[in-house]
Model the fold of this input.
Amino acid sequence: IQLTQSPSSLSASVGDRVTITCRASQGISSFLAWYQQKPGNAPKLLIYTASTLQSGVPSRFSGSGSGTDFTLTISSLQPEDFATYYCQQLNGYPPSFGPGTKVDIK
Amino acid sequence: EVQLVESGGDLVQPGGSLRLSCAASGFSFSSYRMSWVRQAPGKGLEWVANINQDGSEKYYVDSVKGRFTISRDNAKNSLYLQMNSLRAEDTAVYYCARVAWIQLSFCDYWGQGTLVTVSS
Done:
């Protein structure tokens, strides 16, 4: 299963609403996770099963979608949210990642 | 506190071997599946391998099948990745990660990674 993400990068300002899309090459039900990675750091789990917020993750992050099209939304971008975001499909092996979306400061 | 600490990364020549280790603490290691995920310099994440709780089930990405072996020692709370016949394209930071659910391979805790460089 191949994953694509769009856009590959975006520039945004603090307070902006940001939406990242992940598309699977075939239906994966709700078997999708989202991660955040900052330079030099390990990935951090944000959302699993498409829309379940991981414990401790701020509520400004939300996920939606099922089948082949998924969305990660940051409702009001904060300075600590500038990072690269990856989706990962969980529908069997290999549990592949998308290519990533880099969010930087406008 | 859950902690995963990788070690063993190094500079190795093409065709060489390396064994990575991951020391786990702060949780019941034998109750969780574990993963290795890698990231080439400046590139995205690539899942490498999974192992189930007792080591009886192992899965690999196609590019490492027959060359890499994932294993674990529950008595030592440790995860391993034996890497043989290394290639330049195996150069990456290798992360050890805990698989959060039995049925789904997403990872809720990650180590800080260990760098493997394959070069002559």
In short: The mean pLDDT of chain A is 97. The interface with chain B takes residues 31, 33, 35, 37, 41-45, 48-49, 54, 86, 88, 90, 93-100 of chain A (CB under 8 Å). The radius of gyration of chain A is 13 Å.
